[in-house]
Amino acid sequence: MEKEPLLMLPGPVPMPERVRYAMMRQAINHRSAEFGAVYADCVRVLKTVFGTTNDLFVISGSGTAGMEAAVANFGRDKDIACLVNGKFGERLFKISQRYGKAHEIASEWGTPLNLAALEERLEQGVQVVTLVHNETSAGIRNPAQEVGRLARRYDALFVMDGITSIGGDVVEADKWDVDIAIVGSQKCLAAPAGLAALSVSTRAWERLSKNPPYYLDLAAYRKSAGGKPMETPYTPAVPLFLALREACLIIEEEGIANRIARHRKMANAVRAAAKAWGLSLYPKIDAKHAYSNTVTAISYPENIRDSEMRDIIKKMGIIIAGGQDHLKGKIFRIGSMGAVGAPEILATLAATQHALKKLGYKVQGDGIQAACEVLA
Amino acid sequence: MEKEPLLMLPGPVPMPERVRYAMMRQAINHRSAEFGAVYADCVRVLKTVFGTTNDLFVISGSGTAGMEAAVANFGRDKDIACLVNGKFGERLFKISQRYGKAHEIASEWGTPLNLAALEERLEQGVQVVTLVHNETSAGIRNPAQEVGRLARRYDALFVMDGITSIGGDVVEADKWDVDIAIVGSQKCLAAPAGLAALSVSTRAWERLSKNPPYYLDLAAYRKSAGGKPMETPYTPAVPLFLALREACLIIEEEGIANRIARHRKMANAVRAAAKAWGLSLYPKIDAKHAYSNTVTAISYPENIRDSEMRDIIKKMGIIIAGGQDHLKGKIFRIGSMGAVGAPEILATLAATQHALKKLGYKVQGDGIQAACEVLA
Questions:
Q1: Which candidate, A336, A353, A210, places its Cα nearest to that of A275?
Q2: How much is the pLDDT for A1?
Q3: ipTM greater than cut 0.90
Q4: Which of A334, B9, B21, B28 has its CA 20 to 30 A from that of A356?
Q5: Which domains does chain A have, with CATH numbers?
Q6: Cβ of A61 and B63 within 8 Å?
């Protein structure tokens, strides 16, 4: 096998060797004390990473399955206010439409959320609020704590998609009044794709919807997790649990505060390079919103074609992301999630700077130098 | 790591080394030609294994997620007749209750289905019929072809759970008029747990229900599978797809007819041993029903305690299954799925014979000898 490309995407991200190798072992019985201990390790570490003492479950499905589990179990037939300023906010809105009466509170992708409109909706009696904490489609971090405070003031449940922030940026689910928080395995946790984890507050349990779906029935997850051994209600994706356990142990060894500081430094380095090149970051932030610390979205300068630029970078063995949907061709995105350190960031920025120059963009300054100053 | 135990369960089952090692590679982008080719390989081989030219999709979720996808996309608000003679038939009934008007047609676990009652329901206009082809909870194989013929005669859709038969026993989805067939990855395919695959007929597409769930929305799967590259709508469990592709290539190399013959021979060997010992197979079959070729359910003789017997066998490094729900303590089950050959069967039967004797059961004859005669 030739050398694998370096994935600098907003997920999936490179996995540490220990995580990958954990998957190759022989099948184990998922109704056994051994599997129960694997699951328990994941839950113990993830609770710290989420900043919660609430119940926490791991689902064999993608982050989208986690989003749907939240909405389907706690939003059916309810009024749901969906804050949207990017693709994944839209997804939560679409999912909410399938289960309840969903109200979209939309801003342009990558621009501040309309919290005044949220408050109006809350005054009108909305029962559930959904938010994407870190919107990778636009590189913006949304003010989860403020949304949580508002939701609680009006006694609404707060569903927070932390799929691409948890494990890489500050998340304090309990302090922020998050009732359901969701993470995906292949993002900041640096585990393989295919698992989602959710935390569920006591308040949320008290408002559990009737008639949940079957595979994503969280009451069934609660029952099975409470057994001895700890189990999942249906057959789990065992190799992914083995890998997630290893990824969790690595997070514990690094320490979550160190890990978050590392993510911030890597994103700072990317932002410093963009600034040095004279490029604009895509999001329009204000005092409440911030640039994402796990993915940086940069606007293309005029006359640079997305496919050409990413092809040049790909030929150097590095994969970065373009824009999604209407942002295709308008932005490029560099992920800095998971096991990523200075070597990966520097290689990516060097390849990007080369591609920009090769395609005729006159960089204002040396982005690599600017990044090194942040990283040093 | 000490030696892994030999899993002789009705899933999960031991995986060939090639399948396990496929999972340890670095993350790949699931929106890439490379992943598309992996998915396409799985679909191509699985269509042969299903005996279908219909659309076929792989879902990142367990067999239960596959069952729910079938019912949720094609059974919502419909009258559904659920044939039940074991735990998984019951599960399909429970799932059906969450989506439509479900009518249980129940027989004792492991006894023939009531096809006359099905025909009555069909006459009354039932629109969907569900069947578990191979009911592992009781070790019985149900007459799928006959159920398909009945369903078609009355123009109902036929949902067949082939989770534990497809890849290990004869399945001809198209010849049998199966509209939706489902398989699980960790059974006869000998891949890791965590994936399900479904085939969907044109007739079924024409009757697609409104308002499907989001993660299991099969129209979204169809759209993404039709793209270039072939994709899944939401992030797939990539390592499991890599493993499934390898498992499919192994099936192709063995040849599906050879693979089915091997499964039958292994089950015949287990049945020969049980008979030699003087034990009864649990299922009560008739001309239309048969003993399962992928798991053998054997009734305990008097005075043998399930936990004691399985503990003795476990100490020899082999895991067999007990009974589920009300059959706990009454039966034991030996799986013969996937990569299992004579060595695994002989070791399991030897350990079982030893345990029976040790616990005071007077075996009538030598089960090992009887099995060897089948296997030779």
A1: A353
A2: 43
A3: yes
A4: B28
A5: 6-10+255-375 (3.90.1150.10), 17-254 (3.40.640.10)
A6: no
